[in-house]
Amino acid sequence: MAERRFLFGLFLVVHLTVHADDDPFFHLAGSAQYRVPSERVETLRDIPVGRGGEQSLHATLFRPRSPAPGARPAVIFIHGGGWRARSPKNTYGAWLAERGYVVANIQYRLTGEAKWPAQIEDCKLGVRWLRANAHQYQIDPERIGVFGTSAGGHLAACVGLIRDPKLEGNGGFPGISSAVAAVGVFCGPADFTVDWLPGKPHPPWVVALMGMPRAENPAIWKEASPAQHVRSDAPRSTLRTGRAIPMRLSRRGRS
Fold first, then answer.
1. Binning pLDDT at 50, 70 and 90, where does residue 26 land?
2. Is there a domain that residue 255 lies in?
3. What is the rounded average pLDDT for all residues in the chain?
4. 53-73, pLDDT tens digit by residue?
5. Residue 141's domain is classified under what CATH number?
6. Is residue 50 within 8 Å of 171, Cβ to Cβ?
7. How many helices (H) and strands (E) does the chain have?
8. Is residue 92, in this structure, part of any structural domain at all?
9. Contact call for residues 102 and 197 (beta carbons, < 8 A)
10. Residue 175 Cα distances to 43, 168, 234, angstroms
11. Which helix (H) or strand (E) holds 186?
12. pLDDT tens digits, 200-247
């Protein structure tokens, strides 16, 4: 029952962020992205997580101030921005914390700092860090989910689907699992082995993620494609598409 409530809550978050035209809850979710945390939410900023290469990585943690009868579910939030820009004002976590979750907005290296697979290494580090500190933050290590938007949705899908040991990185907490119980993806591209649009090249920010055109190293582009890692024992996931990311790219993650 606890697992069902956790999964429903995470899926509800994604659902509330997508139906701009016909869903009355869209306006609530839109304001959730940049809302100011209420008095019911404690915000812990600049928490050291580990290292990405030579760079120190940090997280912002949102959690309810009210006591809980037991360990709380947790969500790793991964921001969008084309893998090239951070979203320091993004406070989805505050909105979720008001509803009983502990949320960690994690930092990952951008394409101007490092190329793939640095991004997935840093996100998996974020999961390991949170699980290793489950007791300190009063969370259930078996109920950690991941949610991301746009480029962050792509990385959330990668966290849930990719389990190649060489993509864990060396940022910290070796031996701790980076597995998650649920995945929420909002408009995240799922397959870079196909064209962005029929007959059209991929945008420069996608090429910047890979560090080279697809023709030069198609294996890297495949490795970074969540749809190429789908497996029968993957965590429960929900994927929502929109107009900004070509649907043929993101919907391939459903098949």
1. very low
2. no
3. 83
4. 999 999 999 999 998 889 999
5. 3.40.50.1820
6. yes
7. 9, 7
8. yes
9. no
10. 28, 10, 20
11. strand 182-186
12. 888 999 999 999 999 999 999 999 999 999 999 999 888 776 554 444
157 within domain boundaries:
yes
- Closest listed residue to residue 119, CA positions, set 90, 165, 84: 84
Mean pLDDT throughout 177-185? 95
The answer to the question of residue 19 being in a domain is yes
Residues 6 or more apart whose Cβ sits within 8 Å of residue 208:
83, 84, 111, 112, 115
Nearest to 159 by CA among 110, 89, 108: 108
User: In terms of C-beta density within 10 A (0-12 exposed, 13-18 middle, 19 or more buried), how is residue 135 classed?
Assistant: exposed
Report the length, in residues, of the chain: 255
Exposed, middle or buried, 71 (CB in 10 Å: 0-12/13-18/19+)? middle
20 pLDDT band, cuts 50/70/90, is very low
Question: In this model, does residue 92 exceed pLDDT 70?
Answer: yes
Rounded to 5°, angle at Cα 210 from 204 and 215: 85
How many structural domains are present in the chain? 1
Per the listing, tokens 């024992």 go with 233
- Structural domain that includes position 141: 2-250
